[in-house]
Amino acid sequence: MQNIAEAFSLAFALVLSGDADLFEIVALSLQVSLTATLLSCLIGLPLGALVAIARFPGRGAVLVVMNALMGLPPVVVGLLVYLHLSRSGPLGFLGLLYTPTAMIIAQTILIAPIVAALSRQVLEDLHGEYAEQFRSFCLTRRQIVRALLWDGRYSLLTVGLAGFGRAVAEVGAVMIVGGNIDHLTRVMTTAIALETSRGELALALALGIVLLVIALGVNAGVQALRMSAVRQAYV
Predict the structure, then answer these.
(1) pLDDT, tens digit, for every residue of 150-194?
(2) Coiled-coil annotation: which residues (predicted)?
């Protein structure tokens, strides 16, 4: 077990030296998390928009379910995906278990309800402002959804960021369906857990540093876009 100062020193050395194993893990983490976030947005944003503008019996129950699904336990999702993708499961013939694809599926199931619920709230507030204009233009539901998604795009970037943050920091589900296999399914969070249990703190801290830098970078990028949009609005 290294002392803390030595562990941090080795961690920064790994990052600055461009360690191949380190960046292989980072690259796979970004590939899995970004793909899952994109799929979740493709599913969640239209769903959130439809629920935001629609009025139907049982809508309150749908909202309760959507909000409840935001707190899905990752290990339960991982277990359900595992059961479906295992050899004895209904999708076992696809051979996806212990692959990055299985990890993307698990993360998408976790993130899509978050994107749907948060975007529903954002777009419902926006729809309240424009409802009379939409009625006066006699727009179809599809046109209204498109208009809301476009007008709320900067706020929805924050929703996507929340989904990405959940994905890139997730460990339980990806550990179950991915197996944490070296050079195949090992991502930052699972590698941090493994290396910490081994007492190899340098790599764990290096991955933690990269994870924090990615989170700060994404937040800074979204904030810059929103500030640019605000400045353009006042021009």
Answers:
(1) 888 888 888 888 889 889 888 889 999 998 888 899 898 888 888
(2) none
Is residue 48 in some structural domain? yes
Taking only the tens place, the pLDDT of each residue in 6-15 is: 667 777 777 7
* Domain-located, residue 77: yes
Q: What is the pTM of this model?
A: 0.86
- Residue 4 domain flag: no
Greatest CA separation found in the chain?
Answer: 69
Q: What is the CATH number of the domain that holds 228?
A: 1.10.3720.10
194 within a domain of the structure (yes/no)? yes
User: 22 and 207 in contact (C-beta within 8 Å)?
Assistant: yes
CA–CA distance, 57 with 167 (Å, rounded to integer)? 33
Instruction: Judge contact between 168 and 36, C-beta under 8 A.
Output: no
Give, as one character, the DSSP assignment of residue 171: -
**Which pLDDT score, from 0 to 100, does residue 23 have?**
84
Question: Hey, what are 103's tokens?
Answer: 């990890």
CA proximity to 1, closest of 205, 226, 223: 205
Whether 1 has a pLDDT exceeding 50, the answer reads no
> How many domains, in total, are found in the chain?
1
Q: What is the DSSP letter of 179?
A: T
**Over residues 91-117, mean pLDDT:** 93
Distance (Å) of CA 49 to CA 22, 30, 46, 64, 144: 39, 27, 5, 16, 9
If residue 208 lies in a helix (H) or strand (E), which one and from where to where? helix 201-234
Q: DSSP class of residue 89? A: S
